Amino acid sequence: MKIQSSPFIVQNLLKLAAASVFLGRAYQHIFWDAPYTEFLWDGKLMAPVIETITPWTWHEYVTNLAVDATIQKWMVAIGLFYLVCAFACLFYEKMPRWMRWPIWLGVAGQVVLALLYMKEFFFHVGQFFEYTLQFCTPAFLIIYFKKREFSPRLIFAMKLATALTFTCHGLYAIGYYPRPGVFTSMTMRILGCSESFAINFLTVAGWLDFAVALGIFLPNKWAKWFLLYAAIWGLLTSLARTVGNFYWELPLQSLHEWAYHTIYRLPHGLIPLILWYLITTKPKDP
């Protein structure tokens, strides 16, 4: 299936999905934290390097407030760079050709971030691939605008990224990897249910994630239903980060702390939505 002259709405959904990754991560880097110290303060990896290229001992390095301040400044700088990437994605058609390179660098930054989170979570491979839609979506944008078409290869890549993200999300939901406590607590707060019900609910949702990963590769007459479910569930799980951690007593603080988690996860729902739209509006062969 190749879709040429794609509707305006699809192009803008793709631009929004790509920009949302960078907007969410920009907010995180500027106002919060990112796991760079997982690498920079890893004694086994960095101590020989630090003690070779600097006059400090390892203890002096990790306790040096100036080093920590420098890391924080670089983190803010990376966040500002991600804002540039988000702007370039939103206004891609009006950007000069050289603006593609910042987006590619931003994609590389998202891959590095996924690797750092994988290290933080005991090198669970699923932790890395759960971010597939996030670090692939800006690349999908660039590839699409090269010819302004959703080629069979691009559509397959979008489906594969969706399948990997949902599969890895499901691995945590069913408890194959230790289920994050935030999964359970969010479910309990949103549904107003008991812990046991929340665990059972997440287990069922995890198995449905696996069904999505397989079902989207079926013939279109069946795949469209799996993609529709993926779009709805992907958007709901993204919103759950904010809704499940929102407190009316501290509305601005709640949004400040959690809204960006929703923003950078928007591709989890928007990419399946784009695929669903392409499938359901594809002209039937004569």
Any overview of this molecule?
This protein is mainly alpha-helical and 286 residues long. The protein has helices at residues 8-31, 37-40, 43-53, 58-62, 65-90, 100-120, 125-129, 132-147, 152-173, 181-191, 195-215, 220-243, 251-264, 267-280, and strands spanning 3-4, 149-150. It has one domain (3-280). Helix content is 76%, strand content 1%. The chain has a two-stranded antiparallel ribbon with strand order 1-2. α6 (100-120) packs antiparallel against α8 (132-147), α9 (152-173) crosses α14 and α10 crosses α11. The longest helix has 26 residues, at 65-90.
Tell me the β content: under 5%
**Element string (H = helix, E = strand):** EHHHHHHHHEHHHHHH
The CA-CA distance between the termini, in Å, is: 15 Å
| Main pleated-sheet profile | 2 strands, antiparallel
How many domains, in number, for the residues? 1
Low-pLDDT parts are 1-5
Could you say which structural class the secondary elements and strand pairing correspond to? mainly alpha
Walk me through the topology:
Elements: E1 3-4, H1 8-31, H2 37-40, H3 43-53, H4 58-62, H5 65-90, H6 100-120, H7 125-129, H8 132-147, E2 149-150, H9 152-173, H10 181-191, H11 195-215, H12 220-243, H13 251-264, H14 267-280
Helix pairs in contact: 1-5, 1-8, 1-13, 1-14, 5-6, 6-8, 8-9, 9-11, 9-14, 10-11, 11-12, 12-13, 12-14
Structure, briefly:
This protein has 286 residues and is mostly helical.
Question: What features would you highlight for this structure?
Answer:
disordered N terminus; two-stranded antiparallel ribbon; globular; about 290 residues; mainly alpha
